[in-house]
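TICKET: design request
STATUS: open
ATTACHED STRUCTURE:
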């Protein structure tokens, strides 16, 4: 059991911003993890985002008016979407990176472009969720009826399209060609990810790199664009902006791997959907890809598309027995360690610390 003095010593080390040089990021990461484990205090998003709470409050006030002002039906849909209790993780990352890089650039306050970027990112993310729910035929999102369930598929598709279009209009008005190209690529990536997924269902020969590319397209691309865009608007060196892109990419991939692990380890009540739902649809994620290396029986069941009663439950058990969960956990931690390294270019302080805690918060979900 850790010494009662360890947490106090490391807490003092961290609170006084005695951070180590960039090349010692792994030791810094280890110290931070030891502190958190010793303190036995789970990280919460609310606490993590407290340093940008005012920024998020302003964003929440603006979102509904930005999205739905032109059409009563879309306004109603927007209220349904933005009132559904989203975590606002992506705009929070925009604000955290904006404030951390603003210190490097000598900015005393965020610009209007920083704030507009956060709003655009959340609009794009929400539009993608509306379309995902239509494609997946999901009835619930965050404990509430989905837009297509409440208003019909036609309105849901149009609402998602409208938000993509509206976000593109605001994006163009930022008048920064680098950020415009960056975010436009994200929207293309969403479509590429859906196509890749649809074309590889029940394909037991799918490789890990293909899975990671699809995960980048569907999840990490937007996060990477969010963090790099924030750095670009702070006016920092290109090298710092690229490190912020890599941070967002690695964080996004780690998050997706953890989500895919939870699909096997959590209950239907915790997930809000049946356990193993991705596998049931033929979407083979990291735990399955790893388990297929050791469990030939798993291939037979998947290629049969679970035609026999109880075969899905058997497949889930084989994923666990075949070490798929453990190897996927290692992959999530590997991507988190890379993301921690990407933060070494930022100055020590509360904003960098929150970005580090985001990595630990994600890994805590599978501890």
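STATUS: resolved
RESOLUTION: sequence designed for all positions
ATTACHED SEQUENCE:
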């Amino acid at each position: 059991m850790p010494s009662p003095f360890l947490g106090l010593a490391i807490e003092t080390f961290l609170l006084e911003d005695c951070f180590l040089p960039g090349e010692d990021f792994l030791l810094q990461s280890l110290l931070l993890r030891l502190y958190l484990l010793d303190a036995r205090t789970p990280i919460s998003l609310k606490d993590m985002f407290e340093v940008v709470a005012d920024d998020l409050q302003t964003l929440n006030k603006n979102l509904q008016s930005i999205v739905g002002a032109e059409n009563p039906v879309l306004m109603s849909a927007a209220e349904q979407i933005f009132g559904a209790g989203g975590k606002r993780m992506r705009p929070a990352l925009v604000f955290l990176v904006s404030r951390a890089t603003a210190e490097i650039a000598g900015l005393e306050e965020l610009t209007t472009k920083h704030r507009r970027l956060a709003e655009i990112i959340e609009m794009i993310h929400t539009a993608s969720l509306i379309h995902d729910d239509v494609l997946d035929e999901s009835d619930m999102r965050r404990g509430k009826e989905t837009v297509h369930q409440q208003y019909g598929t036609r309105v849901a598709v149009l609402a998602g399209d409208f938000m993509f279009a509206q976000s593109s209009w605001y994006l163009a008005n930022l008048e920064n060609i680098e950020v415009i190209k960056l975010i436009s690529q994200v929207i293309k990536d969403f479509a590429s990810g859906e196509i890749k997924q649809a074309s590889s269902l029940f394909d037991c020969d799918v490789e890990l790199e293909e899975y990671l590319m699809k995960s980048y397209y569907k999840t990490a691309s937007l996060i990477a664009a969010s963090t790099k865009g924030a750095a670009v608007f702070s006016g920092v060196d290109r090298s710092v902006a690229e490190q912020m892109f890599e941070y967002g990419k690695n964080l996004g991939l780690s998050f997706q791997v953890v989500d895919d692990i939870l699909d096997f380890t959590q209950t239907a009540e915790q997930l809000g959907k049946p356990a193993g739902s991705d596998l049931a649809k033929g979407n083979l994620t990291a735990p399955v890809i790893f388990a297929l290396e050791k469990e030939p029986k798993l291939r037979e069941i998947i290629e049969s598309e679970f035609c026999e009663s109880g075969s899905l439950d058997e497949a889930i058990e084989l994923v666990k027995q075949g070490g798929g969960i453990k190897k996927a956990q290692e992959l999530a931690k590997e991507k988190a360690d890379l993301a921690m390294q990407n933060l070494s270019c930022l100055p020590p302080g509360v904003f960098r610390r929150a970005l580090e805690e985001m990595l630990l918060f994600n890994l805590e979900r599978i501890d």
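CLOSING REMARK: The longest strand covers residues 140-141. Strands lie at 140-141, 144-145.
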